[in-house]
Amino acid sequence: MVNQIFYVITVPMVYLAVAWCLVGIAVKVARVAKTPAHPFTLKIFPDKDHPVPSAVWGALSMPTVRRHNPTFWVFLILFHIGVALLILSHLDMLPWFNIYPEDSPNMIGNGAVGVVVTAAILYFLLRRFAGPLREVSVPADYLLLFLLFCVAMSGDIISWANSWSENGFVLTKQDFGEYLNGLFHFSWADPAETIDGGHYVVLVTHVFLANLFLMVLPFSKIMHTFFAIPLNKLRRG
Amino acid sequence: MDAKLKQELIQTFSERLSQAAKMYMENCSRCGLCIEACHAYASSPETRYTAVGRAQNIRRIYEEYFKKGKIAKKLNEAVELSDFWMEKVYETAYTCTGCRRCMTYCPFGIDTGVIQGIAKMMLITADQEPKALSMLADMSIAKGKTIEKTKTNFAAAAKNLEKEVLERWRSEGGEDVVPLDVQDANVLYVALAGKHSIIPAAAIMNAAKEKWSLSYFEAVNFGAFVGNPAKTKEIAGRIIDEAKRLNVKEVVICECGTAYRVMKHMTGEKPFGVITFAELIARYIEQGRIKLDKSKLPGKVTYHDPCQIARQGGIYEPPRYVLNHLTDHFVEMTPNRQANWCCGGGGGLVAIGEKDFRMKSAKVKADQVKATGAEVLCTACENCHTQLSDLNEHYGLGVEVMYLSDLTAKALVQD
């Protein structure tokens, strides 16, 4: 029974979560796109010479945060760059990517990227418990960050704590790569057949939490990933 | 609250959900960066006086009526419309001056003014808006409809101002001191209801030998203050029609920030230019059409950037250019330009009174003025002028609050 649940989580649920997430994002973006534009400019002056590149740069580098709360900005930048690197390092497990040597047991950053991302999420979560931010936060804010924290933490166990054995990695990047590759090729293979040992349950937990996150994403404020640039464009005219 | 009103309020909300408003509703991450941006919070640290605090009142209603899923609603603290929540809607609408300083803090640039616009329109639907603003807006519209009947009286009133204008600037023989209905004028000057807004401007334009015409209409747009887009358009439309009829090159808006923003940025393309009076003065100085005597303004002078012409209009340098021709003792406030603190009087607050709140919420502005050590506090907006004068009295700042136009007119060098 447990094996069947694990299989559902690691294979069919992944497809469902990804499909759900992509359709959800598309619907959300389309709904906003077909809504009539605001009837007048929402620009803030002074004028920017190149509003589009300026909006892109503004969304990516968050200069207003850097100016008004540098500590928060450092964590935000670390978090966002970290997430980008984590996406890349997951893709690097596939055979046709070779950013890290194919035979290396480590992911990009040797586990440090995940730890930095986890620390940043923890900071985002803890700062909500104090001061006026506590008054404006809603349960969804805490839960989303908690979910992200759990995803990141379980990922850290796989990418880093997994190596704390006498013989190094219990499960290697190649093991996970085979699982991911199977998913990409719709092999419907049970990863339990190739990945075994005590750490398998951590992988299942990580995949389950990541699935949950993907399913929640279109309904959460993480949608700012897709709206940060258009939003920044509005204030630049 | 009865079901019919609830339905009407949801409909109003829905109609105000532009693309921008939808993105603002859905993407705020409540990071709290905007908290420190608001003058009201900086003066009286209550979370309800923050951009995110005000927006949450509206966002929680949005979660209830425009989002699906019972769990999501609970997690986002969705609320049903009720009399209590309409009070919170009022708080969103009328504790914010629409200065948009928070936009310069928010990583996404969320415009609280847009969210405030939803709140104001909901209040109108519920017949809970400040009645003074609606009445003033209706009076402006009525004046537009009956203008032909009142033109004679207006011309007589303008004639009565001649003596005071001539005291500021002697007129050439045969020249109209306060001209009306000048076809093909370069400038249609739109003043406020009050001679303080006409006399200095007339003297300056006459000194510059401008071909100008005084508008029959007052610049202020109470439709914008009360948050009614249809009335805003109708009130501005009277001036637009007049400018088209006279075939003027430029409409010059007096020292009224909201009037400028409405005319320049909220009423679409027009066949004439729109500038502030501060820009016109700067142009006259630059072109050598007027000369100013610096000895008329001794002592330190500082300048308050009105939000609606500065952050919202980009008019940062022209007033400073003028002031630097009026005095050698100009000192900047800190912060200034885009980062300047709002005076706390915008968004209709001055018009509806609210003096206790205005004084409480603008302590940071009073402190900012005091820190300059200036004797003269200059600004270029009627709302700001009223609010700064009240602050001056309330906090004992000991400054003289002056319009840029008035300072300029007093310093005109008679050839």
Give structural notes:
Chain B: It holds the Pfam family CCG. Chain B: One of its GO terms (molecular function) is 4 iron, 4 sulfur cluster binding. Chain B: Keywords: 4Fe-4S, Electron transport, Iron, Iron-sulfur, Metal-binding, Transport. The complex is a heterodimer of chains A (237) and B (415). Chain A is an all-alpha fold and 237 residues long. In chain A, 65% of the residues lie in helices and 0% in strands. Chain B has 415 residues and is an alpha/beta fold. In chain B, the strands form two sheets. A four-stranded parallel β-sheet of chain B has the order 2-1-3-4, with helices on both faces. Chain B has a four-stranded parallel β-sheet with strand order 6-5-7-8, with helices on both faces. Chain B is globular and about 75 Å long. The mean pLDDT of chain B is 95. The chains are: A mainly alpha (237), B alpha/beta (415). Chains A and B meet through helix 2, helix 4, helix 7, helix 8 and helix 11 of A and helix 2, helix 4 and helix 5 of B.
Global geometry of chain A? globular
Unreliable residue runs of chain B: none
Strand content of chain A: under 5%
| Structural class by helix and strand composition of chain A | mainly alpha
Helical percent range of chain A?
55-70%
Strand order of the largest sheet of chain B: 2-1-3-4
- Please provide the ordered H/E string of secondary-structure elements of chain A: HHHHHHHHHHH
- Total strand segments of chain B: 8
Quaternary class: heterodimer
Strand content of chain B: 5-15%
Distance between the termini of chain B: 68 Å
Structural class of chain B: alpha/beta
Number of distinct helices of chain A: 11
Terminal residue distance of chain A: 58 Å
Largest sheet of chain B: 4 strands, parallel
The number of helices of chain B is: 21
Biggest sheet overview of chain A: none
Membrane topology (chain A): Multi-pass membrane protein
Keywords (chain A): Cell membrane, Membrane, Oxidoreductase, Transmembrane, Transmembrane helix
Transmembrane segments (chain A): 6-27, 72-91, 111-130, 142-161, 197-217
Subcellular location (chain A): Cell membrane
